[in-house]
Write a structure and sequence with these properties.
Layout (H helix, E strand, L loop, with lengths): L10 E4 L2 E6 L4 E3 L7 E7 L2 E6 L5 E7 L18 E4 L3 E7 H10 L1 H27 L2 H17 L8 E3 L4 H8 L3 H13 L3 E4 L2 E4 L2 H8 L3
Antiparallel strand pairs: 1-2, 2-8, 3-7, 4-8, 5-6, 5-7, 9-11, 10-11
């Protein structure tokens, strides 16, 4: 069974590539379904997640512009996760066979993909360590630092203010806590002048302290 994006606003660039605009909150890939396409996020924020039978959700990773839904999707047809749009997003879908042919024809692109595979695996290992060993404060600080680094690599950051469209539920589902617990930790961070979340932005007031709490190093 093949699953393609179904949202309106498609734009066809070539026979092997097409684009979609997807509204916030829309699920755009479902675990265990098969697709002939490789998807890359071109604009906005999304997230990969695993849904349990009782409705609980574990967010595996947040997707930022330039991210593939997963690096292994270049080789694997079946989704091993689901994907949802966090904000309105722009997505490019590329036929897997064409992507693979271009990789084989260009070793530099193939090496870049290999580097992305390593980075994805390294990030997953660090996140697992944080989830398994860290306290609530440390988990949230780790997540904030991780996203700050990724945002800074894509955007110009001024006065330690980062675009941050996550709600407390998203943070809770990413770090294995309840929204109430997340709210308490964020309130504590704000009171201590470490970080403050408001109006879709993360304002960092004390980066050294945030790093002391959440850094794995």
């Amino acid at each position: 069974m093949e699953k393609r994006l179904e949202e309106s606003g498609a734009q066809q660039d070539a026979d092997w590539q097409h684009h979609r605009i997807v509204p916030a909150g829309k699920q755009i890939a479902t675990r265990n379904l098969v697709s002939e396409d490789v998807f890359v996020l071109c604009g906005g924020w999304g997230f990969r997640f695993f849904q349990l039978a009782d409705g609980r959700r574990q967010i595996l990773n947040f997707l930022l512009p330039g991210d593939l839904f997963s690096v292994i999707s270049v080789f694997e047809q079946r989704f091993h996760f689901s994907v949802k749009a966090l904000t309105e997003i722009q997505v490019s879908a590329m036929q897997r066979a064409e992507v693979q042919a271009r990789l084989l024809a260009n070793p530099k692109i193939l090496m870049a993909l290999a580097a992305s595979c390593f980075a994805e695996g390294d990030a997953a290992g660090k996140s697992l360590t944080a989830l398994g060993q860290y306290s609530a404060e440390e988990r949230i600080a780790y997540l904030l630092l991780h996203l700050m680094r990724r945002i800074a690599a894509r955007s110009v950051i001024r006065e330690q203010r980062y675009p941050f469209p996550l709600r407390q539920q998203h943070i809770a589902d990413a770090v294995g806590l309840t929204p109430v617990h997340v709210s308490r930790v964020l309130s504590l961070f704000r009171e201590r002048g470490i970080v403050a979340l408001s109006d879709g932005a993360l304002q960092v007031g004390n980066l050294p302290e945030l790093e002391r709490i959440g850094s794995l190093n």
